[in-house]
Amino acid sequence: MKKGLWMVLAVLAALALFGGCYITGRAAVPTVHATVSTPPPPTVVVGGTASVSGTYVAPRPVLVSGVTTITAACDPNAPEVLNGLDDNCNGQIDEGWVGSGNLQITLGWSTPADIDLYVVDPSGTEISYMQTQSPTGGFLDRDARGACTNGEVVENVYWNGQPPAGHYVIRVNYYSNCDAAGPTPITVSISYGGQIVGAYQYTIGDGQTVEIASFDL
Ligand SMILES: [Ca+2]
Ligand SMILES: [Ca+2]
Fold first, then answer.
1. How close is the Cα of 98 to the center of ligand 2, in Å?
2. Taking the model in full, what pTM does it have?
3. What protein residues have CB closer than 5 angstroms to ion ligand 1?
4. Residue of 56, 70, 71, 83 with fewest CB within 10 Å of its CB?
5. pLDDT tens digit sequence for 72-102
6. 69 CB-side CA count, 13 A
7. Span from the CA of 95 to the centroid of ligand 2 (angstroms)
8. How would you label 78-87 residue by residue, b for 16+ Cβ within 10 Å and e otherwise?
9. Distance in angstroms (rounded) separating the CA atoms of residues 213 and 67
């Protein structure tokens, strides 16, 4: 009887021990955090044909004080180079180098400064190196001079498909002079539906943020 009692006590102790472990184990299961659904990046279209649905209506950007329009003519026989401008007059900016599409906004400059492009789309999403994709299909495919570490001096945002109607804002931030650059002339070019809306220039200072242009589609 005594041996049997010890066995019963041993079984009860084991149940308590392993039961406790089991409960402890359940409690230790990592919490599953909700994940944010991120759309896949669009296929980069370099030099593809862009067209808008419906009637093409060129947007009319509102420029802030100090921003001027570039009037230099392009040349259909010129090679397209990576400079933030449509060199060959085909309505696409830096095609073959960066993504083109129905709406393309391209920033270029020529000093070692780290300068960043921000585009706020009608959904309110601010596309930049910090958030390269918008649910509307907008995508930043080129982040230049991040932490002064690469030699690129072009940033580019584009929509492969139809960009949504509504209000767009283009901002530029002079993030760092990278120990070398001073005030830096920048260009911002806009293409819509395969046609250049305009190219604009501004000289931006270290630490400055400028709302270069805004427009409605
Ligand atoms: Ca071009
Ligand atoms: Ca170019």
1. 10
2. 0.78
3. 80, 86, 88, 90, 92
4. 71
5. 779 999 999 999 999 999 999 999 899 988 9
6. 10
7. 7
8. eebebbbbbb
9. 8
Asked if 102 contacts 157 with a C-beta cutoff of 8 angstroms, the reply is: no
The whole-angstrom separation of Cα 200 and Cα 71 is: 9
Å from CA of 91 to ligand 2 middle: 11
- Cα 12 to averaged position of ligand 1 atoms, centre (Å): 81
What is the predicted pLDDT for the residue at 17?
44
For every residue of the chain, which 3-state class applies, written as one string?
CHHHHHHHHHHHHHHHHHHHHHHHHHHCCCCCCCCCCCCCCCCCCCCCCCCCCCCCCCCCCEECCCCEECCCCCCCCCCCCCCCCCCCCCCCCCECCECCCCEEEEEEECCCCEEEEEEECCCCCEEECCECECCCCEEEEECCCHHHCCCCCEEEEEECCCCCCCEEEEEEEEEECCCCCCCEEEEEEEEECCEEEEEEEEEECCCCEEEEEEEEC
Residues 150-163 as b/e (b if ≥16 CB within 10 A, e otherwise) read eeebbbbbbbbebb
**Ligand of minimum distance to the alpha carbon of 92:** 1
What's the token pair of residue 41? 């990046």
Neighbours of 21 (CB within 10 A): 11
pLDDT(62) > 80: yes
Instruction: Give distance in angstroms: CA of 154 to centre of ligand 1.
Output: 14
